[in-house]
Specification:
With about 475 residues, the protein is mainly beta. It has helices at about 5-10, 20-30, 425-435, 445-450, 455-485, and strands spanning about 45-55, 60-65, 70-85, 85-100, 105-120, 125-135, 140-145, 150-160, 170, 175, 195, 205, 220-230, 235-240, 245-255, 255-265, 270, 275-280, 280-285, 300-305, 315, 325, 340-345, 355-365, 370-375, 380-390, 395. It contains 5 helices and 27 strands. The chain has a 5-stranded antiparallel sheet with strand order 1-8-3-4-5, with no helix packed on it.
Length: about 475
Protein backbone atom coordinates (compact mmCIF):
# COMPACT_ATOMS: atom_id res chain seq x y z
CA UNK A 1 0.00 0.00 0.00
CA UNK A 2 1.62 3.21 -1.20
CA UNK A 3 1.01 6.36 -3.17
CA UNK A 4 1.06 5.76 -6.94
CA UNK A 5 1.09 8.04 -9.94
CA UNK A 6 -2.06 8.27 -12.07
CA UNK A 7 -0.69 6.08 -14.91
CA UNK A 8 0.02 3.25 -12.46
CA UNK A 9 -3.44 3.51 -10.90
CA UNK A 10 -5.10 3.27 -14.32
CA UNK A 11 -3.31 -0.03 -14.92
CA UNK A 12 -5.24 -1.55 -11.97
CA UNK A 13 -8.59 -0.82 -13.59
CA UNK A 14 -8.13 -1.75 -17.24
CA UNK A 15 -10.80 -3.89 -18.89
CA UNK A 16 -10.60 -7.49 -17.80
CA UNK A 17 -8.58 -6.73 -14.65
CA UNK A 18 -9.72 -7.11 -11.07
CA UNK A 19 -7.97 -4.72 -8.64
CA UNK A 20 -6.79 -6.37 -5.45
CA UNK A 21 -7.46 -5.07 -1.96
CA UNK A 22 -3.89 -3.71 -1.84
CA UNK A 23 -4.39 -1.90 -5.14
CA UNK A 24 -7.62 -0.32 -3.87
CA UNK A 25 -5.60 0.87 -0.85
CA UNK A 26 -3.05 2.40 -3.25
CA UNK A 27 -5.90 4.30 -4.93
CA UNK A 28 -7.10 5.73 -1.62
CA UNK A 29 -3.59 6.60 -0.39
CA UNK A 30 -2.78 8.41 -3.63
CA UNK A 31 -5.47 11.06 -3.17
CA UNK A 32 -5.59 13.91 -0.66
CA UNK A 33 -7.71 13.36 2.42
CA UNK A 34 -9.46 16.02 4.48
CA UNK A 35 -7.79 14.53 7.59
CA UNK A 36 -4.31 15.33 6.19
CA UNK A 37 -3.42 18.47 8.20
CA UNK A 38 -0.33 19.14 6.10
CA UNK A 39 -2.69 19.82 3.18
CA UNK A 40 -5.80 20.98 5.04
CA UNK A 41 -4.59 22.61 8.31
CA UNK A 42 -7.20 23.65 10.85
CA UNK A 43 -5.71 27.10 11.40
CA UNK A 44 -5.24 28.20 7.76
CA UNK A 45 -8.31 28.12 5.53
CA UNK A 46 -9.95 29.96 2.69
CA UNK A 47 -13.34 30.18 1.04
CA UNK A 48 -14.18 31.23 -2.51
CA UNK A 49 -17.58 32.83 -3.23
CA UNK A 50 -19.24 34.34 -6.31
CA UNK A 51 -22.11 36.81 -6.71
CA UNK A 52 -23.69 39.29 -9.12
CA UNK A 53 -25.34 42.61 -8.47
CA UNK A 54 -28.51 43.27 -10.50
CA UNK A 55 -28.70 45.57 -13.49
CA UNK A 56 -30.24 49.07 -13.29
CA UNK A 57 -30.20 49.04 -9.47
CA UNK A 58 -27.70 51.26 -7.68
CA UNK A 59 -26.69 51.32 -4.02
CA UNK A 60 -27.01 47.58 -3.49
CA UNK A 61 -25.16 45.48 -0.93
CA UNK A 62 -24.44 41.91 0.08
CA UNK A 63 -23.22 40.53 3.43
CA UNK A 64 -20.48 37.98 3.93
CA UNK A 65 -21.75 35.96 6.91
CA UNK A 66 -18.94 34.62 9.11
CA UNK A 67 -20.95 32.71 11.71
CA UNK A 68 -20.82 32.83 15.51
CA UNK A 69 -17.32 31.49 16.12
CA UNK A 70 -13.94 32.35 17.55
CA UNK A 71 -12.42 34.59 14.87
CA UNK A 72 -8.82 35.56 15.62
CA UNK A 73 -5.56 36.17 13.82
CA UNK A 74 -5.38 37.58 10.30
CA UNK A 75 -8.32 37.63 7.89
CA UNK A 76 -8.01 38.85 4.28
CA UNK A 77 -10.95 39.46 1.96
CA UNK A 78 -10.19 39.85 -1.73
CA UNK A 79 -12.81 41.03 -4.24
CA UNK A 80 -11.98 40.71 -7.95
CA UNK A 81 -13.90 41.97 -10.97
CA UNK A 82 -13.62 41.34 -14.67
CA UNK A 83 -14.84 42.66 -18.01
CA UNK A 84 -18.57 42.00 -18.15
CA UNK A 85 -21.56 44.23 -18.84
CA UNK A 86 -19.43 47.24 -17.92
CA UNK A 87 -15.76 47.74 -17.22
CA UNK A 88 -15.31 46.61 -13.59
CA UNK A 89 -11.94 44.93 -13.81
CA UNK A 90 -9.47 45.11 -10.92
CA UNK A 91 -8.97 43.96 -7.35
CA UNK A 92 -9.52 45.19 -3.80
CA UNK A 93 -7.80 43.36 -0.96
CA UNK A 94 -8.49 44.29 2.67
CA UNK A 95 -6.64 42.79 5.65
CA UNK A 96 -8.13 42.54 9.15
CA UNK A 97 -6.35 41.83 12.43
CA UNK A 98 -9.10 40.36 14.61
CA UNK A 99 -9.75 38.95 18.05
CA UNK A 100 -13.45 38.07 18.22
CA UNK A 101 -15.14 35.64 20.60
CA UNK A 102 -18.60 34.13 20.09
CA UNK A 103 -21.70 36.21 20.86
CA UNK A 104 -20.09 39.52 19.96
CA UNK A 105 -17.45 39.47 22.70
CA UNK A 106 -14.38 41.50 21.71
CA UNK A 107 -11.02 40.67 23.30
CA UNK A 108 -8.78 42.43 20.74
CA UNK A 109 -9.82 45.60 18.88
CA UNK A 110 -10.16 44.94 15.15
CA UNK A 111 -7.80 46.87 12.89
CA UNK A 112 -7.79 46.85 9.10
CA UNK A 113 -6.07 48.34 6.08
CA UNK A 114 -6.29 48.15 2.33
CA UNK A 115 -3.22 46.28 1.06
CA UNK A 116 -4.13 46.32 -2.63
CA UNK A 117 -6.56 48.48 -4.64
CA UNK A 118 -6.34 48.79 -8.40
CA UNK A 119 -8.60 49.12 -11.41
CA UNK A 120 -12.06 50.46 -12.23
CA UNK A 121 -13.50 48.16 -9.56
CA UNK A 122 -12.64 50.97 -7.14
CA UNK A 123 -15.55 53.01 -8.55
CA UNK A 124 -18.07 50.21 -7.98
CA UNK A 125 -17.13 48.21 -4.86
CA UNK A 126 -16.49 49.17 -1.24
CA UNK A 127 -15.61 46.64 1.51
CA UNK A 128 -16.95 47.46 4.97
CA UNK A 129 -15.70 46.36 8.40
CA UNK A 130 -16.41 43.22 10.43
CA UNK A 131 -19.33 43.85 12.82
CA UNK A 132 -21.60 41.83 15.06
CA UNK A 133 -25.15 41.39 13.72
CA UNK A 134 -27.36 40.86 16.75
CA UNK A 135 -30.40 40.05 14.60
CA UNK A 136 -28.59 37.20 12.86
CA UNK A 137 -26.49 36.37 15.94
CA UNK A 138 -23.26 36.21 13.92
CA UNK A 139 -20.39 38.27 12.55
CA UNK A 140 -20.59 39.82 9.10
CA UNK A 141 -19.02 42.34 6.75
CA UNK A 142 -20.88 44.22 4.05
CA UNK A 143 -19.80 44.69 0.44
CA UNK A 144 -21.36 47.78 -1.15
CA UNK A 145 -22.04 48.22 -4.87
CA UNK A 146 -22.55 51.84 -5.93
CA UNK A 147 -22.97 51.25 -9.67
CA UNK A 148 -26.37 50.67 -11.35
CA UNK A 149 -25.01 48.17 -13.87
CA UNK A 150 -24.90 44.41 -13.67
CA UNK A 151 -21.51 43.16 -12.55
CA UNK A 152 -20.20 39.72 -11.49
CA UNK A 153 -17.57 39.48 -8.75
CA UNK A 154 -15.51 36.76 -7.08
CA UNK A 155 -14.51 36.78 -3.40
CA UNK A 156 -11.73 34.90 -1.69
CA UNK A 157 -11.63 34.97 2.13
CA UNK A 158 -8.43 33.71 3.81
CA UNK A 159 -7.87 33.30 7.56
CA UNK A 160 -4.77 32.36 9.49
CA UNK A 161 -5.55 31.65 13.15
CA UNK A 162 -3.65 30.44 16.19
CA UNK A 163 -5.91 27.43 16.72
CA UNK A 164 -8.75 26.92 14.26
CA UNK A 165 -9.99 28.99 11.33
CA UNK A 166 -13.69 29.15 10.44
CA UNK A 167 -13.86 31.14 7.19
CA UNK A 168 -14.47 27.93 5.24
CA UNK A 169 -18.00 28.15 6.72
CA UNK A 170 -18.60 31.67 5.34
CA UNK A 171 -21.65 32.22 3.13
CA UNK A 172 -23.46 35.09 1.38
CA UNK A 173 -26.69 36.82 2.22
CA UNK A 174 -29.21 37.91 -0.39
CA UNK A 175 -28.52 41.14 -2.28
CA UNK A 176 -30.39 44.06 -0.76
CA UNK A 177 -30.63 47.84 -1.11
CA UNK A 178 -28.25 49.81 1.15
CA UNK A 179 -26.70 53.18 0.22
CA UNK A 180 -23.08 53.76 1.25
CA UNK A 181 -22.66 56.83 3.44
CA UNK A 182 -19.40 58.77 3.43
CA UNK A 183 -16.27 57.24 1.91
CA UNK A 184 -17.04 55.55 -1.42
CA UNK A 185 -13.62 54.71 -2.85
CA UNK A 186 -10.73 52.67 -1.51
CA UNK A 187 -7.08 53.68 -1.70
CA UNK A 188 -3.90 52.07 -0.47
CA UNK A 189 -2.42 53.81 2.57
CA UNK A 190 -0.31 52.61 5.46
CA UNK A 191 0.19 55.25 8.16
CA UNK A 192 -1.82 58.00 6.38
CA UNK A 193 1.37 60.04 5.95
CA UNK A 194 2.59 61.37 2.60
CA UNK A 195 6.24 61.11 1.70
CA UNK A 196 8.13 62.97 -1.03
CA UNK A 197 11.66 61.65 -1.48
CA UNK A 198 11.04 58.95 1.17
CA UNK A 199 9.03 55.72 1.29
CA UNK A 200 8.72 55.92 5.09
CA UNK A 201 7.13 59.31 5.91
CA UNK A 202 7.31 60.33 9.58
CA UNK A 203 4.67 63.08 9.47
CA UNK A 204 1.52 64.00 7.54
CA UNK A 205 3.83 65.59 4.95
CA UNK A 206 7.46 64.45 5.00
CA UNK A 207 9.64 66.07 2.34
CA UNK A 208 13.26 64.88 2.00
CA UNK A 209 14.71 67.61 -0.19
CA UNK A 210 14.23 71.25 -1.16
CA UNK A 211 10.75 72.73 -1.62
CA UNK A 212 10.24 75.51 -4.21
CA UNK A 213 7.01 77.46 -4.49
CA UNK A 214 5.95 80.77 -6.01
CA UNK A 215 6.35 82.49 -9.33
CA UNK A 216 8.42 81.35 -12.28
CA UNK A 217 10.73 78.52 -11.29
CA UNK A 218 9.46 78.60 -7.71
CA UNK A 219 12.38 80.59 -6.28
CA UNK A 220 10.36 83.80 -5.91
CA UNK A 221 7.10 84.29 -4.12
CA UNK A 222 5.59 83.59 -0.72
CA UNK A 223 5.48 80.28 1.13
CA UNK A 224 3.24 80.15 4.18
CA UNK A 225 2.03 77.65 6.72
CA UNK A 226 -0.60 77.70 9.46
CA UNK A 227 -1.43 75.51 12.45
CA UNK A 228 -4.92 75.87 13.92
CA UNK A 229 -6.04 74.01 17.04
CA UNK A 230 -9.55 72.62 17.12
CA UNK A 231 -10.76 75.07 19.78
CA UNK A 232 -9.35 77.99 17.80
CA UNK A 233 -7.41 79.33 20.77
CA UNK A 234 -3.97 79.24 19.13
CA UNK A 235 -3.06 80.19 15.58
CA UNK A 236 0.57 79.90 14.50
CA UNK A 237 1.58 81.31 11.14
CA UNK A 238 4.77 81.83 9.22
CA UNK A 239 6.09 82.86 5.84
CA UNK A 240 9.26 83.14 3.81
CA UNK A 241 9.15 85.81 1.11
CA UNK A 242 11.75 86.52 -1.52
CA UNK A 243 11.73 89.52 -3.85
CA UNK A 244 12.21 93.26 -3.64
CA UNK A 245 11.26 93.39 0.06
CA UNK A 246 12.82 90.21 1.32
CA UNK A 247 11.92 89.22 4.85
CA UNK A 248 11.17 86.24 7.10
CA UNK A 249 8.30 86.40 9.55
CA UNK A 250 6.63 84.23 12.10
CA UNK A 251 4.09 84.63 14.87
CA UNK A 252 1.72 83.04 17.35
CA UNK A 253 -1.69 84.14 18.61
CA UNK A 254 -3.02 82.91 21.92
CA UNK A 255 -6.30 84.28 23.31
CA UNK A 256 -6.14 88.10 22.88
CA UNK A 257 -2.36 88.41 23.16
CA UNK A 258 -0.16 88.46 20.09
CA UNK A 259 3.50 87.59 19.69
CA UNK A 260 5.11 88.15 16.31
CA UNK A 261 8.36 89.08 14.62
CA UNK A 262 10.19 89.40 11.34
CA UNK A 263 13.73 89.59 10.03
CA UNK A 264 14.16 91.99 7.12
CA UNK A 265 16.50 91.68 4.17
CA UNK A 266 19.26 93.66 5.89
CA UNK A 267 19.25 91.29 8.85
CA UNK A 268 17.53 93.64 11.35
CA UNK A 269 14.83 92.33 13.63
CA UNK A 270 11.64 93.87 14.93
CA UNK A 271 9.17 92.22 17.13
CA UNK A 272 8.26 89.90 19.82
CA UNK A 273 8.82 87.73 22.83
CA UNK A 274 11.28 85.40 21.07
CA UNK A 275 13.46 86.32 18.11
CA UNK A 276 16.15 85.27 15.69
CA UNK A 277 18.53 87.93 14.30
CA UNK A 278 20.94 87.80 11.37
CA UNK A 279 24.07 89.97 11.18
CA UNK A 280 27.84 90.14 11.08
CA UNK A 281 28.01 88.53 14.52
CA UNK A 282 26.12 85.49 13.31
CA UNK A 283 22.66 84.17 14.10
CA UNK A 284 21.34 85.09 17.55
CA UNK A 285 18.45 83.49 19.37
CA UNK A 286 16.95 86.10 21.71
CA UNK A 287 14.07 86.53 24.12
CA UNK A 288 12.26 89.52 25.63
CA UNK A 289 9.46 90.15 28.09
CA UNK A 290 7.34 92.03 25.52
CA UNK A 291 4.44 90.35 23.75
CA UNK A 292 3.81 93.11 21.23
CA UNK A 293 5.82 96.15 20.14
CA UNK A 294 5.75 98.48 17.13
CA UNK A 295 8.24 97.70 14.38
CA UNK A 296 10.43 100.75 15.10
CA UNK A 297 10.35 100.54 18.93
CA UNK A 298 13.52 99.54 20.82
CA UNK A 299 13.34 96.17 22.53
CA UNK A 300 15.58 94.89 25.31
CA UNK A 301 16.46 91.31 24.46
CA UNK A 302 18.57 88.70 26.26
CA UNK A 303 20.65 86.28 24.22
CA UNK A 304 19.94 82.55 24.53
CA UNK A 305 22.20 81.07 21.87
CA UNK A 306 24.47 82.23 19.05
CA UNK A 307 25.86 80.70 15.86
CA UNK A 308 28.96 82.66 14.80
CA UNK A 309 30.08 83.08 11.15
CA UNK A 310 32.82 80.43 11.38
CA UNK A 311 30.18 77.79 12.09
CA UNK A 312 30.66 77.49 15.87
CA UNK A 313 27.62 77.38 18.13
CA UNK A 314 27.71 78.92 21.58
CA UNK A 315 25.31 78.30 24.43
CA UNK A 316 25.98 80.52 27.43
CA UNK A 317 28.84 82.28 25.61
CA UNK A 318 29.05 84.96 22.91
CA UNK A 319 32.38 83.72 21.53
CA UNK A 320 32.22 79.93 21.02
CA UNK A 321 35.63 78.36 20.45
CA UNK A 322 34.44 74.97 19.24
CA UNK A 323 31.70 73.68 16.93
CA UNK A 324 29.55 73.41 20.09
CA UNK A 325 30.77 75.44 23.06
CA UNK A 326 28.53 75.13 26.11
CA UNK A 327 29.19 77.12 29.28
CA UNK A 328 27.00 75.23 31.70
CA UNK A 329 25.77 71.72 32.36
CA UNK A 330 24.88 69.37 29.51
CA UNK A 331 22.22 66.72 29.99
CA UNK A 332 22.15 64.23 27.13
CA UNK A 333 20.25 61.03 26.42
CA UNK A 334 21.69 59.29 23.36
CA UNK A 335 20.12 56.31 21.60
CA UNK A 336 22.99 55.70 19.17
CA UNK A 337 26.45 57.12 18.44
CA UNK A 338 27.97 56.82 14.99
CA UNK A 339 31.29 58.52 15.66
CA UNK A 340 32.85 61.78 16.85
CA UNK A 341 34.24 63.22 20.05
CA UNK A 342 32.98 64.90 23.20
CA UNK A 343 35.29 67.49 24.87
CA UNK A 344 34.89 68.81 28.40
CA UNK A 345 37.24 71.62 29.43
CA UNK A 346 38.08 73.20 32.77
CA UNK A 347 39.28 76.77 32.11
CA UNK A 348 40.44 77.25 35.71
CA UNK A 349 43.38 74.83 35.29
CA UNK A 350 45.87 76.49 32.94
CA UNK A 351 49.25 75.76 34.52
CA UNK A 352 51.72 73.95 32.22
CA UNK A 353 51.46 70.19 32.51
CA UNK A 354 48.05 70.37 34.15
CA UNK A 355 45.30 68.46 32.37
CA UNK A 356 42.51 70.90 31.68
CA UNK A 357 40.56 69.07 29.00
CA UNK A 358 39.54 65.50 28.24
CA UNK A 359 37.82 63.94 25.27
CA UNK A 360 35.67 60.89 24.65
CA UNK A 361 36.01 59.55 21.09
CA UNK A 362 34.05 56.98 19.14
CA UNK A 363 36.52 56.33 16.35
CA UNK A 364 37.24 53.97 13.47
CA UNK A 365 40.24 53.51 11.20
CA UNK A 366 43.82 53.37 12.42
CA UNK A 367 42.81 53.84 16.04
CA UNK A 368 40.43 50.89 16.00
CA UNK A 369 36.68 50.87 16.45
CA UNK A 370 35.63 51.76 19.98
CA UNK A 371 35.69 54.45 22.66
CA UNK A 372 38.90 56.35 23.50
CA UNK A 373 39.48 58.66 26.44
CA UNK A 374 42.17 61.27 25.67
CA UNK A 375 43.70 63.91 27.90
CA UNK A 376 44.85 67.37 26.76
CA UNK A 377 47.20 69.53 28.79
CA UNK A 378 47.66 73.29 28.67
CA UNK A 379 51.27 72.83 27.46
CA UNK A 380 49.96 71.27 24.24
CA UNK A 381 50.68 67.64 25.04
CA UNK A 382 47.93 65.11 24.58
CA UNK A 383 47.36 61.39 24.11
CA UNK A 384 45.05 58.44 24.77
CA UNK A 385 44.59 57.23 28.34
CA UNK A 386 41.93 54.54 28.00
CA UNK A 387 40.63 52.54 25.03
CA UNK A 388 37.54 50.31 24.99
CA UNK A 389 37.17 48.30 21.77
CA UNK A 390 33.91 47.03 20.34
CA UNK A 391 35.25 43.48 20.93
CA UNK A 392 35.24 44.09 24.70
CA UNK A 393 39.01 44.62 25.08
CA UNK A 394 40.45 47.47 27.14
CA UNK A 395 43.82 49.23 26.90
CA UNK A 396 44.94 51.45 29.79
CA UNK A 397 47.92 53.82 29.47
CA UNK A 398 48.64 54.08 33.16
CA UNK A 399 48.33 52.26 36.50
CA UNK A 400 45.41 50.34 37.98
CA UNK A 401 44.58 50.62 41.66
CA UNK A 402 41.87 48.34 42.99
CA UNK A 403 40.84 46.65 46.22
CA UNK A 404 40.20 43.36 44.42
CA UNK A 405 40.55 41.93 40.91
CA UNK A 406 38.59 38.84 39.82
CA UNK A 407 39.63 37.05 36.60
CA UNK A 408 37.03 34.65 35.24
CA UNK A 409 36.96 31.97 32.53
CA UNK A 410 40.50 30.77 33.43
CA UNK A 411 41.31 27.01 33.71
CA UNK A 412 43.00 25.58 36.83
CA UNK A 413 46.28 23.69 37.09
CA UNK A 414 44.93 20.71 39.05
CA UNK A 415 45.73 18.42 36.14
CA UNK A 416 49.23 18.26 37.64
CA UNK A 417 47.86 15.96 40.39
CA UNK A 418 46.28 13.53 37.94
CA UNK A 419 47.66 9.97 38.01
CA UNK A 420 48.63 10.09 34.32
CA UNK A 421 50.39 13.45 34.50
CA UNK A 422 53.99 13.24 33.21
CA UNK A 423 56.21 15.09 35.68
CA UNK A 424 59.57 16.03 34.20
CA UNK A 425 62.49 14.37 35.99
CA UNK A 426 64.51 16.62 38.31
CA UNK A 427 67.67 16.12 36.23
CA UNK A 428 65.81 16.94 33.01
CA UNK A 429 64.45 20.06 34.73
CA UNK A 430 67.96 21.14 35.68
CA UNK A 431 69.20 20.57 32.15
CA UNK A 432 66.33 22.63 30.68
CA UNK A 433 67.03 25.55 33.04
CA UNK A 434 70.73 25.44 32.22
CA UNK A 435 70.07 25.56 28.49
CA UNK A 436 67.17 28.06 28.42
CA UNK A 437 67.55 30.23 31.55
CA UNK A 438 63.83 29.95 32.40
CA UNK A 439 61.35 27.35 33.61
CA UNK A 440 59.54 25.10 31.13
CA UNK A 441 56.21 26.55 29.86
CA UNK A 442 57.09 29.97 31.33
CA UNK A 443 57.88 32.73 28.80
CA UNK A 444 61.41 34.01 28.73
CA UNK A 445 62.29 37.56 29.78
CA UNK A 446 62.65 38.50 26.10
CA UNK A 447 59.18 37.17 25.29
CA UNK A 448 57.63 38.95 28.28
CA UNK A 449 59.22 42.24 27.23
CA UNK A 450 58.10 41.90 23.62
CA UNK A 451 54.63 40.40 24.00
CA UNK A 452 53.54 41.33 27.53
CA UNK A 453 51.75 38.97 29.89
CA UNK A 454 48.25 37.59 30.16
CA UNK A 455 47.70 37.94 33.91
CA UNK A 456 45.21 35.10 34.18
CA UNK A 457 47.24 32.60 32.14
CA UNK A 458 50.49 33.57 33.85
CA UNK A 459 48.98 33.08 37.32
CA UNK A 460 47.83 29.59 36.35
CA UNK A 461 51.32 28.76 34.98
CA UNK A 462 52.86 29.88 38.26
CA UNK A 463 50.32 27.74 40.15
CA UNK A 464 51.28 24.79 37.94
CA UNK A 465 54.98 25.25 38.79
CA UNK A 466 54.14 25.47 42.51
CA UNK A 467 52.14 22.23 42.28
CA UNK A 468 54.98 20.55 40.36
CA UNK A 469 57.42 21.79 43.04
CA UNK A 470 55.14 20.25 45.67
CA UNK A 471 55.34 16.91 43.86
CA UNK A 472 59.15 17.16 43.73
CA UNK A 473 59.24 17.84 47.49
CA UNK A 474 56.91 14.92 48.23
CA UNK A 475 59.08 12.66 46.04
CA UNK A 476 62.25 13.79 47.84
CA UNK A 477 60.59 13.26 51.21
CA UNK A 478 59.75 9.67 50.26
CA UNK A 479 63.35 9.12 49.08
CA UNK A 480 64.69 10.43 52.42
CA UNK A 481 62.39 8.10 54.36
CA UNK A 482 63.55 5.16 52.19
CA UNK A 483 67.22 5.95 52.84
CA UNK A 484 66.62 6.25 56.62
CA UNK A 485 64.98 2.84 56.71
CA UNK A 486 68.08 1.10 55.35
Amino acid sequence: MAKKVITALKEYFKAGKRPTESQFSDLIDSYANLEDKTIFPDNYKHKDLYFEFPDQQADMAIDVLLGNNYLNGSLVIEVAGTFAYQTSVGIIKKQFEIGLNPDGNLWYPTTSRIVEAEGTILYNIYIGDIVWDSARNEYKLTIYHTSNRLNPYAIRITQFSYDKAFVDQARLSDVYHKPLIGQKKHSVHYNENIGIGTDNPKAKLDVRGTVFAGQGDGTQGINAFAIRYENGSVNNWGSLRSGAETYMSYGAKADNQTAYGWVSGDGTFAGCKTAVTLGNEGIKFLSSNYLQVPQDSPVTMSELMRIVPNGNVGIGTESPQQKLDVHGTILSQINSNEGGALFLENHSKTAPGTANRWALYNMTGGYGNGLQFWSYSADGTYGPKLFLSDAGNMALYGKIEAKDVVITATPTADHVFASDYHLRGIKDLGKFITENNHLPEIPSAKEMTADGLSVGDFQIKLLQKIEEMSLYIISLDKEIDRLKSK
